[in-house]
Amino acid sequence: ESSNAEISVFEVNIRFVGGLLSAYYLSGEEVFRKKAVELGEKLLPAFNTPTGIPWALLNIKSGIGRNWPWASGGSSILAEFGTLHLEFVHLSHLSGNPVFAEKVMNIRKVLNRLDKPEGLYPNYLNPSSGQWGQHHVSIGGLGDSFYEYLLKAWLMSDKTDEEGKKMYYDAVQAIETHLIRKSSGGLTYIAEWKGGLLEHKMGHLTCFAGGMFALGADGAPNDKTGHHIELGAEIARTCHESYDRTSMKLGPEAFRFDGGVEAIATRQNEKYYILRPEVIETYMYMWRLTHDPKYRQWGWEAVEALEKHCRVDGGYSGIRDVYNNHESHDDVQQSFFLSETLKYLYLLFSEDDLLPFEHWVFNTEAHPLPVLHKDNGNKEENQK
Ligand code: DMJ
User: Fold this and answer.
1) Is 364 annotated as a binding residue?
2) What is the mean pLDDT of residues 2-9?
3) 3-class DSSP state of 197
4) What pLDDT score was predicted for residue 382?
5) In this predicted model, what pLDDT tens digit does every residue of 123-161 receive, in sequence order?
6) Could you please report the per-residue DSSP string of 92-148?
7) What is the pTM of this model?
8) Any residues with CB less than 8 A from the CB of 233 and at least 6 apart, and which?
9) Residue 365 C-alpha to ligand 1 middle, in angstroms?
10) Distance between CA 69 and CA 137 in Å, rounded?
11) Which residues have a Cβ under 8 Å from the Cβ of 294 and sit 6 or more positions away?
12) Active-site annotation holds for 144
């Protein structure tokens, strides 16, 4: 019996379904498999829309869905409906029920049918009409993990998911052409695109893309492997600068490249740091893929800053202004601090054979999921 509660389909999927799937694969305990599948079934009514693009919010008792009232004329959000793929493929794999995989494959079908402005994916899509909402494009908030899941779907399929692969590399091509710029000071950044105009701002969330470009470098078409690694390195450097240019050596929520500044937050409401993982996540991928020791140095700088400014009695807290010399704590320890920030730090200082990339992908909340190897069904027992 479900309680009368409205949940975010995306958050429940990445944190709870993803967490239960990882717990199952790491422990082999049946209870985690069973609960993951049960929870996945509770999410299915969210897909009852004319297009099959799911609602953002779902009442799990009534099965009635709706979208965020602020999202462009009733739209669903790219980073939400585009970040179900990995978990739903595993739910079908573990339950024998194809419905989960069918739901996420249909999302791709809808996306592939649509015209994309300049080859870019807008953040908003109306689940009733099947049309884009506002033409805003972001590799940070509202867009981010959609791109991540295209790449990881291909990797998780043991590189058999050619559709995911093509969608990923085509998207990166459009992002490079239209969103990636270099500041006069030589910092590469990823801007936001609003109906053809660039906002020269990069979110902390966007910093995950450095790691993504490096992770995808190997499969890049047209001899672009080195180029994608270099792009990852440049984004890592820019995001490190966003940390280094603060007094606390922790990065702001968003930083700008306009009005005479580079990699600095200029608006008071963008100066906070809520223990987010993306910059450390990128250091971890860059370390594993290049072994350049600077990534461990940069990671250690973040460890020292976290200890100095975020450690409080009983845990760690976010900071209201990273440019201030005195901490103002927000008194919140986000759950992604444990699942992502600390896990990526641990992996940054571990050997490469701990959760090796050949056998594992991390969901967007850093919960590890095994690669489904084509020749041997399911060998996760040998992958620990
Ligand atoms: C996490 O919940 C996930 O990484 C998500 O994809 C983006 N935002 C947070 C962490 O900042």
Assistant:
1) yes
2) 96
3) strand
4) 43
5) 999 999 999 999 999 999 999 999 999 999 999 999 999
6) HHHHS-THHHHHHHHHHHHHHHS--GGG---SEE-TTT--B-S-EE-SSTTTHHHHH
7) 0.97
8) 210, 214, 286, 290, 292
9) 6
10) 19
11) none
12) yes
